[in-house]
Structures are given as C-alpha cells and as structure tokens.
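Methods — Computational structure assignment.
A single polypeptide chain was analysed. Its primary sequence is given first, followed by the predicted tertiary structure written as structure tokens.
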Amino acid sequence: SAASIYSILKLTPSVNEYQQNIGPSFPVFTVRGVRMSQLAQTLDGIPMTDLLYGGQGALLTNNVGSIISTGQIEGIHVYPGVAPPDRGGFATVGGTIAYTTTTPPEKSYADIFTKIGSFSTDTYGFDASSGSIPGTNGLRIYTRLSRTQTDGYIQHTPARYTDFLFSAIKPYDDGLSQVTGTLIYNTARANLASSPMAVSQLEKYGIFYNYPLSESSTLQRGRYLTAILGDRTYINNRVLVSAKAFYIHKYSYQAGYLQPSYISPSYPYQVSLSDASVSYGPLPPTVASPGVVPHTYDPAATFGSYDAGEAAKTQYSGSTTLGIVPKVNVFLPHNDITVGGLVAQETSGPGGGNYFYGSLNMPELYGYNSLYDPSGKAQRTVYSGYLSDKIYLLDNSLHIEPGVTITGVSTSNYVPANLYGSPPYPYTLGNYDKEVLPYFGLSYDITKIIVAYASYGKGARFAPVGDYLLGPKGSTTLAPGPETVNAYEAGVRYVGNKLYLNLDGFWQNMHGMFSFYDNLITGLTEYANIGEEQMKGLELSGKYEVNPEWSVSGNISYTSANYMNNFAAAVTPSSEQYGYVFAGDPLAFVPNWIAGLDVSYHKHNFYAKLGESYTGPQITTEVLPSDLTNPLLANATVPNPGVRMAPYFLTNLELSYRVPMHNAHISSVTVSLNIENLLDNTYYTHYYQFYKQYNFFGVGQPYYEAYPGLPRFIELGLSARFS
C-alpha cells in the first residue's frame, strides 16, 4: 500500500484520514471529528500515544515513520467515543485505537518479498517464523525486516523507511502461562512539503508541483525504538494475572532551508514553515545572562540581511517513556472482573538542540548560533488504575459492564529561557491533575441474532506540555487542566449466518477544551480550559456473505461537529493553525458524510477486492486581516463555512494469486497487484485561505493553499514462501 498504517482505519465508520507522502508517515486523522492528538492509541495494551503531547508528539516532530507500521500488526480495533476501562488507553476525549503486533505463528516458514510501484517506489524484505523450537518447551520466534524507498507523488519529496520487528513467546505451566517479548525498531528519512502549496502555483505548474530542494527543503529523520516484555500467569481457573513492562524512545531531527527571496514580504506566497525567520523574526546577537539563550552569530552582518542569515534551521529532539501495565482477571460464574492500571513516565530533555544560519552547511554551537537552551526538560508521570466488571444476567441475555478509571497525572516543564519575560529568567511550570472517569455499558439480546446496546463514558485528555508556558504578556502561573468528554452511544446489531448489520447513534459533549489567549481584562496571557465542542451523528456498517466466494461490506456515517462557544482554538485536525472560533461554527476539515463499499472474491488461491470510498465536503479555514481592532481576531485563523473543500470518490483494487510450488524448499509463490485511486481522480485533501507571514504579521493579499491527494498508484508484488 502507498499509505501508512492509519489508512486501514478508513474502513471504520466516521474515520477521515490523509497523508502527504507514500509510506509509513504521520497522517492527518479524525474519528467522529476528534483529531488524532485527542485520541488514545495502544500497542498490545500499552500506551502508544505520546504522554507529553498526545498523538506522535509535538507539532512538526515525528512526522516521518511511526512506532508501528503496516507489516508489523495482525489486528486493529477502533473504539470510538469512550472505550471500556480495560481497553481505553491513556488520555482520550474521542476514542481509542488498539493495535496488536504480529505474534509468532505455530508453523515454521520464511518469506521473502518485493514490491515495485509508481513514483519509483520499491519495497523489499523478509519475515521468518521458527515455529515451536525443539527442546525449548514451545519457544516460538518471529522476525520481520522491510525497507521502502520512494520519490513521492509530490515533487521533491523522496523518502526512505526501514521497519524491524522481533517477537517471541515462551509458554510454561503446560502452556497455561506464557512470557512474551517484542522489539520494534523503525527509522525514516523524508523530505516534506512543510506548507501547502499556493493553488495558483498548482494550477500553473501542475497539481503535484513543489519547489526544488535547492530552493526550499524540509528534511526530517525519525527513529522509534519500542521494547515490551510481558508475562501472563495462570493462577487457577478463576484468576489470571498479567503484566507488561515497556520502553519507548523517539528521536526526531529536522533541517529546513528557504531561499531568502521567498522569505521576503514581496514574495506573495508562504513557501515553508521550517526556516528560522518565519518562527522568530530578526535575531540580532544576544549576550549571555540569566534566562537568555546567547548567540554571537550576527545573521545580517554575515549574510547581508536577516532574511538571508536566518534562511536555515536545524532541530534535534527526543523523548523516552518507561512504564508498566499490570492486570488481574477474575472469572466468576456470572461476571468477569478486571482490575488493572498504568504507571508510566515520559521525559524529554535535557539535550537536543535548535540552531539557525544562512545555509544548512552550518556550525551547531551553543552560544554561537543557538536558538534554545538544551537544558530544558519536560516530564509527565501517569498513575492510573481501573476496575471493570462484565455481568451476565437473564440467562446470559443481559450484559452489564460498569467500570471506573482513576487517573493522576504529574507534569512539569522547565524552561531555561523565558522568551517573553523581562527579565527573561528561567522557570518551571507544573501541576498535578486527577480525574475520575466512569463508564457504563449495557447490551440486551432481543433475539439470538438481534442485540441492542448503549454506553456512557467520560474521558479526559491532559494538556500538552507545550501549554505549560508563560506567555508574551505575562501570565498566570496556572497550568491548564484536562479537557473532558461525556460520550453517549446507542445502537442495534444484527448477526445472522450471512448478514451482519450495525446501526448506532452517538452524542459527545466536550468540555474545557484547551485555549491560549490574551485576557483583555487582566492584561495577562493565559492557557485555560474554556472551549466547548459537540459531536453527534449516525453510523451504519455491515457485511453480507453472498456465498463462500463472494462478500460485500460497507459503511456510511454522518457526523455533525460544532463549537458551542467562542474561544481561541487550534482550528485544524493537525493543530498547525491557531485562531478563533465562534459558537455554532462547524469544525473545519471534518466531513459530514463518509462512506465506503468493498466487494471481495476469494476462491482457492485467488483473491480480489474492489473498494470504493466517499469523503464528503469539508469546511475550510481563512485568515483574518492583521489590522482588525480586536486583537483576538487580528491575523487569526477561523472556520470558513462559506468555502467547502470538494467531495471526492476513490476506487481501489487488490488482486493476489498464490501459486503452489512442488519443490523441496519453496512451498508457494504469490503475485499481487494493488491499485489505489484506480480512476486517477484529482482532488485536494487540504484547502484553505492564508496570508503570507512575515515578522509575525500577515502581509500582502490572502490566497488559497492546498495539498493534493494521491493520484493513481500501481504496485506489483512478488513473494516466495520457504517451508
């Protein structure tokens, strides 16, 4: 597939996803209108979500590669709204995505595979399973290595990815208990378009146009190391005890350059967001003093102007997470009780760096061309415990699932240089938050094949550590509290021999959404919890097995997502645009209608699937002028219900045929063909109005920017199995 692991989730109702490159890159992703940074993600039951920021981490970091990739999983389950406590993960106000890694199979084999696709895309690698190793009492090992490289469908966006997985299972107690181990190491290197392209440029030079790398470049490298060690111990037929310890390390590097003539306010378009000038404005030399990041480098004197001397920027960052997830299952005659928890800590810093210069061939010396003090440190410690019960009544036709999660979070952010302070002394801002999150689920078997169900859950997402800052006008020293959701869902499910149908409705009220603004009464800059949002909608999904060979599956969903009050907010799913919203405004880039239909055929060694998806119109955004008298609205990005991004259909085709081989070593060869966007539709995945930014102000005339979607992508694969 040309897309990341997240593209698989589009088979789920109310899921919208896109990304700007080929391969396992960071997507823009919503579930029922809730953006990725507000969702929980788990990997074999451990939190995969960044504890400090949510999602994969801070904005413009960890954008290439990911902790887990498509070939490393064997299952995904989406729990929209609020999941039961034992499946909820950490910190969500809109849903949980649960991944399970590929476990060592019972059978021994080795596969080698290769794929060749459009845009000079090729993938190759191997996977191998030991089966049960003789003399080890059942030890099984599985490993997989894959490499992908591509030129990208947007011009000048080459990328390389390497994914490695190792897993092992060792049963004991006659197979009733087991120890498991998983090691994942994924790396990526890719050039991105850090800003959407002006639509006028796309219309002039072609929809996939991008500036040459010699004129504008944003290179990112990412490394992701994950280790999980687990044990599941059978006590007796009533009690099962398990625990998993985990370690996650993420490293991100970014190098950005923009030709100075494009930085100038006379150039009408915003070409990049990765140079130093767009983030900091003029940077004259500074002298070392408490709370000041010193740099003796003079950009104007060295390169002739501030624009030229600040055309390049490099940034290093990373974080480490350690934790343990214990769980006890108690199985009683009429109920199953689960007690579990999470203790984890993520730390970012000290270390890393941020440097600027007139070219990417730069020295990186603290005190000469440094932008940040590397002694900064952010840390979050999570203490969470839950109790849930599944109760079976009325001859097992009524199922009740009450539960509660209690989560305490301690967060601190040490900032060695207060960019806005006078004097700019260092400071630490932190707090401790605790939330009690109830859950109640109910289902009733109306007949043997018709089930009615309903649930209520409360979720909480704790503030990104980037909000633990003092603002440019002085600030209260209060760090923001968590944002919360009360999620309600009800539905009916039909499960027949050949037909499966599910219809549900949902209502999600979100409270205390994060906001950053200047308080016009107190004169202070505040990070506060003042936003209100509401998501409601209907979802229908189903599958029909026509006969043993043919099956049809599909889904359709309607989502209405709106702001319920006026507040300063992140107004896009990727949070890259900050502005202001008004009560009644719909959330931008959340389609009301999403639908999908798949027709599959499988007979003997041949498999085929034809899929069609529909993404409905989406509200866009616009940037208000800089000269408005209300400072909250001047230069603010706001939803623009008057301009909608056009809807689009996509058609995908998958074909594969396994050829048995009568050979002593090769058991089979499989040929596959994958075509995405079969009809080569032209469409935008992101589209909005923007002002060119210069020295923190919008300049020139507003114009429209956009990201184009993936054109027709053809991939031919070949694999051989040795057994």
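Note: Helices lie at 199-205, 260-263, 276-280, 299-303, 306-309.
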